[in-house]
Amino acid sequence: MENASKALIIAASVLVAILIVAMGVTIFNRAQNSADMTSLDTTEINMFNSKFERYADNQLGSQVKSLISFAISNASTNKDDPSKLPTINLTNSDKYNAGPVNGSTDASNAINTYVTNLGTIRNAIVSTHTYKVTCNYAGSGLISEIIIDYNT
Length: 152
Fold this sequence. Notes:
Number of helices: 3
Distance between the termini: 100 Å
Largest sheet: 4 strands, mixed
Number of strands: 4
Shape: rod-shaped
Low-confidence stretches: 96-101
Structural class: alpha+beta
């Protein structure tokens, strides 16, 4: 009888140890998933920025027009997230100075105005001229402003 009670105590101890290890693994996995969510946001920011950054530096007008076309399609994709609608400035242009085109509001009229102004800027770009494109970043890491400078 003594051996049977000792066997039951040992079996219970083994079960408690297995339960403690399982809880530890579960807590570790949850903490790991939380860390992955943070890096996913950074990855998302980098992916978003890279689509605009490839147009940075000196570009022909045809490439700048492609940038603005991408900004227009980005506006329709991200119309509910104004932080993903960068301000676009065309500077030092004799033909046209659009000033900022800002997507800082989520109202549909503002999005339509944003897209219309981008179209106006795109039409003012001379395809064979060289422009300097510069990206500025917000505190979140997302591109908040794109400056298109008409190089003379």
